[in-house]
Amino acid sequence: MQSVLPSLFFYALATMILVSAVVTITRRNAVHSVIWLISTLLGIAGLFLHQHAEFLAAVQVIVYIGGITVLFLFVIMLVNLDEAAKKKQFAGQWKIVVICAGALLAELGFFIFKGAEGFYFAEPAGGSLQPNTQLIALALYRDYLLPFELASLLLLVAMIGAVVLAKKDLK
Amino acid sequence: MPPVPTAHYVFLSAALFTIGMIGVLTRRNVVIILISIELMLNAVNINLVAFSNLLQSVNGQAFAIFVIVDAAAEAAVGLGIVIALFRNKETIQADEIDLMKW
């Protein structure tokens, strides 16, 4: 019998992730949204640690929390959000929202009805996740070399595109 | 075997994805719509890493890295569009940008 601590860790993190996500999409002030987004991302990094994805947890903290959220904060400072915060925050599409939430609730009901043991997933193939960073490097630079190079090209295009879009006049 | 059933991770991922989707569909602020898209991409990552742990295969984590790369590119371009939009239209409310709507 395993110790109860790992599952406690999971449920605490899951609660933190879902609560922060709900708060993220309901805040009036976009800066508060970003702060709560950081809380969600930290929870997800904790989940990665929990699942023996140590390298990915580090990447999550460095790229998401250190990079993307700072980018969001910069843009929020650049565009004037004071007027936007005073206006109505939500717009239409409630029908689709009700359908989505209903689908999720139906899933939850089915899930509770069947229990976690009722779901069958494939069996492990007998590989290993340790040493984590070394195996990811092998996967990226050997098995997925072409997608890796394409991803670098994508980042280059995105960088040039962002500079062009944000530039005042293209001279 | 993982101490927490993989089905729980899958459900957490579905719930987070739905929250992100609700954010995209209902909010008017374009910056918060982009934040909600980040939430949805993270939900996908939870799924990939959960199955990577279940199958003891590192491929899922490699794909999660590609998802993070895409998220970074998407955030950069999306926020560039937000800045260009604010410069031209003085608004970042999604439903006030209706020039093409007839």
Give the percentage of residues in beta strands of chain A.
Answer: under 5%
CATH names the topology of the largest domain in chain A as Four Helix Bundle (Hemerythrin (Met), subunit A)
Q: State Rg of chain A.
A: 21 Å
Helix content of chain A: over 70%
User: Could you name the ranges of chain A where pLDDT drops below 50 across 5 or more consecutive residues?
Assistant: none
Uncertain spans of chain B: none
Classify the secondary structure makeup of chain A into a structural class.
mainly alpha
One letter per element, helices H and strands E, the order of chain A comes to: HHHHHHH
List the total number of helices of chain B: 3
Q: What's the helical proportion of residues of chain B?
A: over 70%
- What is the beta-strand fraction of chain B? under 5%
The CATH homology group name of the largest domain in chain A:
NADH-ubiquinone/plastoquinone oxidoreductase chain 6, subunit NuoJ
CATH class of the largest domain in chain A equals: Mainly Alpha
How many runs of DSSP E, i.e. beta strands of chain B? 0
- Shape descriptor of chain B reads elongated
Could you describe the 3D structure shown?
The complex is a heterodimer of chains A (171) and B (102). By secondary structure, chain A is mostly helical. Chain A folds into two domains: 1-87, Four Helix Bundle (Hemerythrin (Met), subunit A) (Up-down Bundle), CATH 1.20.120; 130-171. In chain A, 75% of the residues lie in helices and 0% in strands. Chain A has helices at residues 5-26, 30-50, 54-78, 82-86, 94-114, 132-143, 145-166. The termini of chain A are far apart. Chain B is mostly helical. Chain B has helices at 6-26, 30-55, 59-89. The model of chain B has no long low-confidence stretch (mean pLDDT 89). The interface between A and B is large, with 93 and 74 residues.
